[in-house]
Specification:
Elements lengths: L1 H10 L13 H4 L9 E5 L4 E4 L7 E3 L6 E6 L5 E5 L4 E4 L7 E3 L7 E6 L5 E5 L4 E4 L7 E3 L7 E6 L5 E5 L3 E5 L7 E4 L6 E8 L2 E6 L4 E4 L7 E3 L7 E6 L5 E5 L4 E4 L7 E3 L7 E6 L5 E5 L3 E5 L7 E3 L7 E6 L5 E8 L4 E8 L8 H5 L1 E6 L2 E7 H4 L11 E10 L4 E7 L14 E6 L5
């Protein structure tokens, strides 16, 4: 049966994705949350997930109604929102989904996430929903408007900004608890917003509209992009480049905080609706006719796959997980084993990492010693992406040539982007003895 479906997919030009029902064995055998790179969602309940950095995609359909937005957190969970107050959560990389009670019947459009496990959702009628327990339970917040909201994002420093109808902006400086409504004065819908850090924000929308804020979303300056096609998605790369995607395959870049924009060739004429940044600066946008475009050079050039599904893709999320690795292994002047651990990101470490994760050392394939992450890193230097911590195993001394292996989180407490780089081994020789 599986072979027959693959043959039919080729015959009718449906691409490499095999459309499977939610309960199929292949869907249930998907990689764990740490093995999924991207999840894309869209109309008629379509979900695509990729475990090979966007090269191929698997489809499931957890519901029949629209799914408008999706985001991931630093624990391998994906949370998606849609029409009729739908909120879905996946803990296995998008292969299966459970419905969470939202308490809303509004058309939910967009969702964003903070390192502390907080999610914010916005949608129709000015609705704002807040979860502080990883998306399990939700509470409504007063947004200050009854107009439709289409987008929300956070700078992960306590500020959240949402965009909506006719240039509407709402912003919060207390982690989404209270909100203030204002306007970009764009005179057109704000379809997407993105944070650049240091209170800098950019909003994009209808007919190439764009604006930027330098005070956390309180006030805005409208700019002329020179582009007439509507923007529907926007993302910011780690280097600070902003990429906006929209109708007729439009993709535009800004390298100065949203003040000036340059259109680039996308390689497609499909309507593009969502954008995200993945690992190592890879940018991904999605759109109509199952279109996925990928850039590895900051949005200058793009490779495109179309017809991955007949359904419209609305949004895409990268699996934002931390990545612990032992970056260095050696000996100090007294021939004691030393190691350096790095969090390659892009996500911060969750709180439970310090509670249960360990750093272990083996000598000649025999376990020799371990230290808890809490003892190793009491100041939580490993928390943010790029964080690092050095450690000396004072009780482990090498006298002759010795095979040494140091492993961070050998018990798999932390869900990571990669699990194959947690250990480092070497033949160490004490030169002074």
């Amino acid at each position: 049966m599986q072979l027959l479906l693959r043959w039919a997919a080729r015959l009718f030009g449906l691409g490499v994705v095999l459309l499977l029902p939610t309960g199929s064995s292949e869907a249930q055998q998907a990689e764990s949350a740490g093995g999924t790179d991207y999840v894309a969602v869209g109309r008629s309940g379509i979900v695509l997930y990729s475990t090979d950095d966007g090269e191929s995609w698997t489809a499931v359909t957890p519901i029949s109604s629209y799914i408008n937005g999706v985001v991931s957190d630093n624990r391998g969970r994906f949370v998606a929102v849609g029409s009729g107050g739908v909120i879905l959560r996946s803990t296995d990389g998008g292969a299966s989904w459970e419905t969470m009670a939202s308490g809303s019947e509004d058309n939910l459009q967009s969702i964003a996430w903070h390192d502390d496990g907080r999610f914010v959702v916005v949608g129709g009628q000015g609705s704002v929903l807040l979860s502080t327990d990883g998306g399990t339970s939700w509470e409504a917040r007063v947004s200050g408007t009854t107009d439709a909201l289409y987008s929300v994002a956070t700078d992960r420093e306590g500020t959240w900004v949402g965009g909506g109808a006719q240039g509407l902006i709402i912003h919060s400086s207390d982690n989404g608890e209270t909100w203030t409504a204002t306007t970009t004065r764009m005179g057109a819908h704000v379809n997407a917003v993105t944070a650049l850090g240091d209170d800098r924000w950019v909003a994009v929308g209808v007919l190439g509209g764009a604006a930027y804020s330098s005070d956390g979303g309180a006030t805005w300056t409208v700019v002329r992009t020179g582009i007439r096609n509507t923007f529907e998605g926007v993302t910011t790369s780690a280097s600070g480049t902003i990429v906006a995607a929209g109708w007729d395959g439009t993709i535009a870049r800004s390298e100065d905080g949203g003040e000036t924009w340059t259109a680039v060739e996308s390689g497609t004429t499909q309507r593009l609706t969502g954008a995200t940044e993945g690992r190592d600066g890879v940018l991904v946008v999605v759109g109509w006719r199952g279109t996925v475009a990928r850039s590895t050079d900051g949005g200058l050039t793009w490779s495109v796959k179309e017809n991955l599904t007949r359904r419209i893709l609305q949004e895409v999320a990268y699996n934002r997980l931390p990545d612990l690795t032992v970056s260095r292994l050696g000996l100090d002047a007294e021939c004691r084993v030393t190691a350096e651990v790095v969090n390659r990101g892009p996500a911060t470490l969750p709180a439970e990492a310090w509670e249960a994760a360990i750093l272990s050392v083996s000598r000649d394939e025999e376990p020799a010693h371990s230290v808890t992450l809490e003892s190793l890193d009491p100041e939580k230097a490993l928390g943010p992406a790029g964080g690092q911590r050095a450690h000396t195993f004072e009780a482990i001394t090498v006298s002759d040539t010795t095979a040494v292996q140091v492993t961070i989180d050998p018990n798999g407490v932390v869900t990571e982007a990669r699990e194959d780089n947690n250990g480092r081994s070497d033949e160490l020789v004490c030169a002074g003895r």
